[in-house]
Amino acid sequence: MQIDVFTLFPDMFVGPLTESIIARAQENNLLTIKRHNIRDFTTDKHHITDDTPYGGGGGMIMKVDPIAAALATTLGDALPDMPVILLSPQGRVLTQQVAQELARQARLALICGRYEGVDERVRQLFVTDEISIGDYVLTGGELPAMVLIDVLARLIPGALGAADAAENDSHATGILEGPHYTRPATFRGLTVPDVLTGGHHARIQRWRREQALRRTWQRRPELLLSAALDEADKWFLMTLAEEDAPPP
Ligand code: 4FV
């Protein structure tokens, strides 16, 4: 996968994209990330990339022309048929399902807004998709772009160590993950559940599924409405409901 990032702050990406899994995915040519500084595509001597809003009002707006030049110059004839994603609070909210959909693309372009946002003609001329990482306002689209790159990198086959790690993720299964344990077997008197050290894989799998269902029931019950639940899951959830039901 190749991701072209258009930003006024390319150096913000250095840290997050040069460590651990994302660094290794680039070393193994599973992922290529190209950072483009929109300011490099200005034509005026002051390299202006933003201006005051027509109609007045506070704040500044990112100009369309430097962004247009950056996209055309760097993407060339690949531009028309590749997803161009604007990171903004007005976008569809990023979920694991949205990430799985985008992870099928060979190439993506990400536009990072700043100030009050981009000129609307950026959307009209270039943007094919708009993604928000959540209902809050950040100083720029760079962190959302990094979040999107991180969630996509994990979904690239071969990017993660254990082959199936991504499949069991919270949200990848539609429900939350249950508790995890590793050595020591006891810490400050807290011991690892016996089922996990008993070596009975079917019991371990069942226990993990029930813990995941319990955590989802307690913290994000709405996820259960869209989760793929089998009969055993439904019976287990019934017992949780009885547990929580007020005494008659
Ligand atoms: C944002 C979000 C976000 C809005 C104004 C950048 C800021 C500034 N992007 N998910 N939430 N963007 O807050 O994606 O231009």
Could you characterize what this model shows?
With 248 residues, the protein is α/β, with parallel strands linked by helices. The protein is built from ten helices and nine strands. It has a five-stranded parallel beta sheet. β5, α4 and β6 form a beta-alpha-beta unit. The longest helix has 19 residues, at 201-219. It is elongated, with a radius of gyration of 23 Å. The N and C termini lie far apart (57 Å). The mean pLDDT is 94. The structure holds ligand 4FV. The site of ligand 4FV has 16 residues, from β5.
Topology (elements, then pairings):
Elements: E1 2-7, H1 14-17, H2 20-27, E2 32-37, E3 50-51, E4 61-62, H3 64-75, E5 84-93, H4 96-102, E6 107-112, H5 120-125, E7 129-132, H6 142-155, E8 186-187, E9 190-191, H7 194-197, H8 201-219, H9 222-226, H10 231-244
Parallel strand pairs: 1-2, 1-6, 5-6, 5-7
Antiparallel strand pairs: 3-4, 8-9
Helix pairs in contact: 4-6, 8-10
The structure holds ligand 4FV.
Ligand 4FV binds at residues 87-89, 113-115, 117, 132-134, 136-138, 140-141, 144.
Brief overview:
The chain has 248 residues and is an alpha/beta fold. The protein is 38% helix and 16% strand. A hairpin with a 2-residue loop joins β8 and β9 (190-191).
Strands side by side in the biggest sheet: 2-1-6-5-7
- C-alpha end-to-end distance: 57 Å
Which hetero ligands occur in this complex? ligand 4FV
Q: Average pLDDT value?
A: 94
How many E strands?
9
Work out the strand percent: 15-25%
Task: Please state the CA-atom Rg, rounded to the nearest Å.
Answer: 23 Å
Measured as a percent range, the helix fraction is 25-40%
Number of helices: 10
